[in-house]
Structure formats: C-alpha cells, structure tokens
C-alpha cells in the first residue's frame, strides 16, 4: 500500500507543494492513521475510545525523507533568466531536450553521475542499428546466458538458440531481456570482426561523439556495476540520435511480440513493459512514441521517453526516481515542454550580414512562448569541413536554443581569407 501511495502523489501534486506536511497528511489518510480522529457511531456520536494512533514505521519515515530530499534538489533551469519554471520531480536528475536543436528545456542535476539500469539498452540498440542488419543471425553463446542470476530480466533464451537481430532487439527493448542484450552486442561485435568488448568500446565512443561527457558503460544490459554510469544529458543525446532510426520506433511501439518456434529456438511471447506506450494503462501518454524503462536497487527507477506533438519532438530522461513516480514525473515534464515552448523556423529570420543565404537543414530555435526573437544573441561558427559555410548558434539569455546553417557572405569570406585564399 505504501508503494502505491507514492504513485498517486506525483500525479496529484503538480504545482506548489508543502512537501513534508502534505506527504505526511496523505500518508496518514491512506494508511488509516486515526490520530486526531475518532470513529463515529450510528447515532452520530464520536467514539473516541476506539480511536487508535498508528505510527509510521521506520521504513516509511525513511521513504518520506528520501522523497522530500529528492524533490528539493534544485532545478537549474528554474533559475535561468527569462525561462519558464518547470515542475518538481521525485527523481534526483531529469532533463527535457528538443530533438531538432538539442536545446535543453528542463534541467535538474543533468550532469550528475547516475546509474542507468536497463535504459542502457537504448544505446545497445543504437550501436546495433548502426553496425548490423535486422536480418542478421544472433547466436546465443554460453557467455550470453551464463551471467544471469535469479530475478534478472529474461525471456528464457538459451545457449545455442539462433534468432534474428530484429527478434533479439524486440526482446531487448520490449521485455528488457538481459541475455538478448548481451547477444546483440556479442554478435554485432563478431560481425565487425571483433567481439563483445569491441561493442562496449563502441558504446562509449559513440556517446562521446554525440557530445556526452559523463558516461562509462561496461555492459549492454544495465545490470549494476559501479563503473557503469551515465547522466541525464548524455542519455538525452542518445535518445535524440535514435530519432534518425525509424526501425527503433517500429520495434518499441510493438505492444505484444512472439518469437515463433523453429529448429533453433522455442516459442517466446512477451510484451512492451513501458506503461506510457500501452493505451490500456493508466500511465499511457498519447504523444509518447518510444522509450525504455529501468530499475535496480542501486539505480532506482529510470526512464527515457521520446514524444512527438505538432511537429515538435522531445526526449525526457528521469534518473534515480523514488517511489512510483517515474511515469507521472515524465508526463508532467513532457506536458511542460510541449505547452510552455515553441519551435521557430529561422529560415526567413536570419538577419546576420555575414550570411549570404540560409542552407537547407534543421534551422530552428526553441524558445519560451512569448519570447522575442530580438532577444537572441548569435555566434558564428565556421564549418571546417565545408568551405564557405557556417553555423549560426543562437542563445537566449546565455542558454543555447538552436542554430541555422548558412552560406557565408562574400564580404565575410574576403575579410577572413588567409594568405592562401582560404578562410
């Protein structure tokens, strides 16, 4: 009952919260505490003799303290000048990132070291999709199943089983099968001429390429290891990159899946565990298009969610969430992102004298609704790989909000030409 309470708390308290008093009050009511109350007889008289005080257990008191502590962790973006204040969360880190720009709309402890648990598997999927084909064979070796412990998430795949990469990714992303995640990494590594360890190296290198600065992965499944960690910003960058892979979204939007029996494998039936993607579930969010859940006793609840509404794509990551607040917190954050910000096409808005024209591409900024474009500041960054072009980076009160790709004006090129005629 106590766990169920905290799933409801986050859904009912969206704005200002008198944390300790409110939590304690609702807790007392839910657990049936009769302190300061009395039963009423059929005649309407209060029977104070039967009133009994029920004390909170030490475990319950500890959970209250942890909820309160997590909620009070400062949300950095709430202090940004000109920004819209976002909701509180019961997680120790959270981020909302807009996909086309990479702009951070909500930031709470986003660079702090956290354990990802099974949301690791979205990075596993990214590396596999970039280095393998869905039709590739995935062979389950002894190593891919031998590490499993009782209670570890699994669909029961065994040594010697052979399935396709597409089937293995369904098991990895829907059922969070740890043996499937290992086999995906091992077989992708072997296809490249290497092994499982090569795949892990690719995971770490790819995150750095995407701009991640505080991650270190040692496995493909997210089972706890003190050296396996990430941060909310890095996970959002991974989620942003996955929008380039429609096959990922096709997989995670599958609600029920069957690996049919064959000569190399028994039948396996499983379903999508992410409740935000299941229409019949009370945690369903109709604009969610993808995601992955995670939980270990060290990481607590983690969740990455991709959502799309009216042409705006968002990635939300919540880490180390206490109680059952991971879905309500994510829903609040996504609603905040869609409601309080607007995406503006800068193709016809660029006014820099250094720009001859705006080139095709993602030329957007994302601003709090009502913010004036005149408040934007720009920084011109020449493209070293494409002579004569540059990126105009936009900031709003020193916060990055987007960019435009431009062809440099002749006057700029002449003014910045070197002796050999190059810029």
In short:
With 423 residues, the chain is an alpha+beta fold.
3D structure, described in words:
This protein is α+β, with helices and mostly antiparallel strands and 423 residues long. The protein contains twelve helices and 17 strands. The chain has helices at 2-12, 19-31, 58-71, 120-131, 143-146, 165-173, 178-191, 196-209, 232-242, 246-252, 326-340, 410-415; strands at residues 39-40, 46-47, 91-98, 104-108, 137-139, 162-164, 256-259, 268-271, 288-296, 300-309, 312-321, 341-345, 355-358, 364-368, 376-382, 389-396, 399-408. The strands form five sheets. Strands 12, 13, 14, 15, 16 and 17 form a six-stranded antiparallel β-sheet that branches.
Give me some keywords for this one.
about 425 residues; alpha+beta; 5-stranded antiparallel beta sheet; 12 helices
> Unreliable stretches, pLDDT < 50, 5 or more residues?
1-52
Structural class: alpha+beta
Largest beta-sheet details: 6 strands, antiparallel
What string, H for helix and E for strand, traces the elements in order? Answer: HHEEHEEHEHEHHHHHEEEEEHEEEEEEH
Strand content is 15-25%
Q: Compute the number of strand runs.
A: 17
What is the number of helical segments per DSSP (H or I, 4+ residues)? 12
Helix content: 25-40%
Radius of gyration in whole Å, from Cα?
25 Å
The pLDDT mean sits at 89
Shape: globular
